Structure formats: C-alpha cells, structure tokens
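Deliverable D4.2, example record:
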Amino acid sequence: MAADAAEEIRGTAHGTAPVPLSVLDLVTVGAGRTATDALRTSVDIARLAESRGFHRYWVAEHHSMPGVASSSPAVILAHLAAHTERIRLGSGGVMLPNHAPLVIAEQFGTLEAMAPGRVDLGLGRAPGTDGATAAALRRSDRLNEGADDFPQQLAELTRFLDDDFPDGHPYRRIHAVPGPVQATSPGGVQSPHRPPIWLLGSSGFSARLAGMLGLPFAFAHHFSAQNTVPALDLYRETFRPSEVLDAPYALIGVSALATDDEKEARRQVLAAALNMVRLRTGRPGLVPTPQEAEAYDFSPMEREFVDSWNANVIHGTPDEVRAGLDDLQKRTGADELMLTANAHGGDVRLRSYELIADAYGLPTPA
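Output generated by the structure prediction step:
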C-alpha cells in the first residue's frame, strides 16, 4: 500500500528540470474576458502540460473574487478529466473548513471514479476568501473554530475516504459513495486507488501536521516566500514515516512567467501585481491589462508592495526563468515545483508554460 501511494505522489523529472514540474491554475479572468474564456484556457493549459511531461495540474479554491473563477475545484477537475488522459489532477487546494468532510469525500470519490489513479486531494485550512464570505459559506461566523478544528476534520475526512470508522462511532454506518463500501457489497468491485491527501500551507501549522502524519506537503511560496524555508525545515524535522510515505515529499507553489522578451514579462507581472494591490485593499476585480497597469498612478505604499510582490515572481525570458527556478529549488530543496502563471491573457499564460517546457527540454508531443 505504501509503495503504491508513494508512486502516485512522487513525480519524475523530465529533460533538464531538477525536479518534476507541475501547474497550479487559479483560472484567472482578465478584463474584457469571461469565465468561459478562462476555463477554456485551463483546458488548453492542461492539455499542453500533459503533452509536455508536467506531472500534475491543480486548481485552487477561491471565493468572491471576480478575477479568479475557481470557486468549485471539483467541478473544474471533472471538466479537465474529460479533456486529459494521463496527467494527475487535484485541488491546490480544497479549503476543508468551508465544507462537510463527507461532501469532500463524495466529490473526490466521484473524481477518482472518473479518472482512476490520477486524482490528488490537497487540503488547506484557510477560507480562501474574506471573513464575511467565509461566514456565508459555512453559515457560521465562528471562523477560528473551523481552522482550529482542522486536524479533527482531516481525521474525519480520512475515515470517510477509507470507510473505516470504528464500531460504535456515530458515522460507522455512513459511507462515502463512490468509495470502498462498494467493494463489500454483493458482487462489488472497487478501484484499488483512493486520492492521496496532501496538506497545504503558508506557515508552520500544516507543515508540522503533515510531518507528524507522514503526508506530502505543499507550501505556498508564491504568496508567503519568507516562510518557505522555515516551513519546509519544520516539515522535514517532524516527519514520521507512514503507510503513505517513508520519507518527506514537499512541493512549493511558484509564481513564474516566461515571455519571448524581458520587457513583456515586466509588463505582464505589473498587471498581475496591480490586481493583488486591489485585492489586498478590498477592491478585488478582474485582472487588468498591461496597458491599464502602465497608466495606473501607484502611491508610494502601493509601489512598495508591487516591488516586494514581484521580487518573488520569477519572470523574464525562458532562460532567466529557468535559472530562477533552478536557484529556488537549490535554496529550498523542494521535491517538486508547481508553477502558476498569473497574467491578463490566457494566451500569455499558455505561452509561458510552453516556453518553460522548451527551456528545460521537456518531451514534445509525438
């Protein structure tokens, strides 16, 4: 069991990449574009990623953000499963406190039935939105309680996925379907796979919990770069071998954008940074165009934020991005790099992954 689980978690590096490369998709919606446009781009990127040897493709849960159309990861993943054949698909992640564990077990059991052996279940404990929206999602204003209960919610979800609540437990006769209970029914045959659980984090809490449980860990370097090395160190120090992994396995999410020339890369990341300025100041909207960003009058405080934010975005020509990714992997020791390309246009994002694949000599379609 451990060997099979580890095989589904660990990827293979291709070309000259130092570690496996993967994709994190925020399904960003640019000004003048629709959510339909963004989702079509997601399909195009997923197909490209599969054809070029990227290991996995994750979708992140966000809410009440006009420029991010990924409020329903399970729905998007089902759509991507219908348009791909081999690449691993998963959540990066599902914000568990927003949902009943049984619902997530059912959703990802269904995804596993659609795409056997290629579904990941990445879990986070943050709301993925502002406090008011989180309260509406959870029908409760006790938001800290959801985060504090995360280990218990995780344990409950795992029990549902494995269908192994002990005798006497109030949920003993409740089963997540599709799931293992089908194999115990008369004439039942069940897939040997179940989605591997990953813990996601931007601080030390989930790093420590993932280590203690022997689970794979994904760190959000793309928006918490100052905590990356401490969190990965903590994960490795606290890691205990489990039925899932016999050694730590950590990936990091990285903002990376490659363009055909350096100037264009700077224009694109400026637009993405303006989008973050608006989000952080309570004005979320669609991702602005580079032209709008260039004409925007940044205040000194906003300019300071933009410079700080873009310092952690690896951008430029393909060779510059490759060098930046290589350096980041050496500094962090990450076992996998999950790249997210934030830009106004879907064509720019698609082209970025293509250029990075070329820079590393990843496989080309037959």
